[in-house]
Amino acid sequence: MTRPREIHSYLMDMDGVLVREEHAIPGADRFIARLRERELPFLVLTNNSIYTPRDLSARLRAHAIDIGEENIWTSALATARFLHDQRPGGTAFVLGEAGLITALHQAGYTMTDNSPEYVVLGETRTLSFERLTLATQLIREGARFIATNPDATGPSLRGPIPATGSVAALITAATGVRPYFVGKPNPLMMRSALNAIGAHSETTVMVGDRMDTDIIAGMEAGMETVLVLTGLTSREQAQREPYRASRVVDSIAELLPDLT
Predict the structure, then answer these.
(1) 153 compared with 130, residue with greater pLDDT
(2) Which fold, 87-181?
(3) Do 9-47+184-259 and 87-181 come out as alike in CATH topology?
(4) 114 Cβ contact partners less than 8 Å away, ≥ 6 residues apart
(5) So what's the architecture of 9-47+184-259 in CATH?
(6) Reported pTM
(7) Are 120 and 96 in contact (CB under 8 A)?
(8) Best CA proximity match to 20, nearest among 205, 229, 244
(9) How confident is the model at residue 8 (pLDDT cuts 50, 70, 90)?
């Protein structure tokens, strides 16, 4: 049994928790509104590095979920912060889209294919064989290999599609070099999110729909964890894992009484 905690802040995944495909999950808008009413710090976390926080904020507001870009933390932002801390003003060759490129530019990084210090891989829907080949060559020549997240698949209207982890595995097979993954389930992303809102793990809860990213990341960062069943994980699948969420609920709407 886990001991009861006094919760002062919330971290939550987006897809599967607040929205699923192109529909808002019932109660998500009321949950966010209640957090604002109580002035509780919160961040929406996503491993998706394609979009900027502004893009994601617009998407959520289109579903009547009022979340500003300042309340969204992506694996792209976490990766950019990590690289800035490791090697300020560095250079990178990027396989990714606007969310990742914008975050790296804002962190002071220069994009180049001329002896970059890093090859940075993020989610992308426009990957070409030419750029994939160049990335493998640069890594073989000494560039460090970083990836935003290890998710092998991502959601789509037609079902799971290859994601960052799958492309990373391809590059690893071609180079023999494994990337350092910054996003969930790396606790580094959780700690950077906590720091962004001045929160402490002992008084923060992580709400997610995946045991292998959201729940294990929250658990390893020392937070209370809540698994919602509106995303990719069923109750039966959760029970087969060697670790457990602090709570399992049907949807985020069940957490509303916690905010009274």
Answers:
(1) 130
(2) Rossmann fold (3.40.50)
(3) yes
(4) none
(5) 3-Layer(aba) Sandwich (3.40)
(6) 0.91
(7) yes
(8) 229
(9) very high
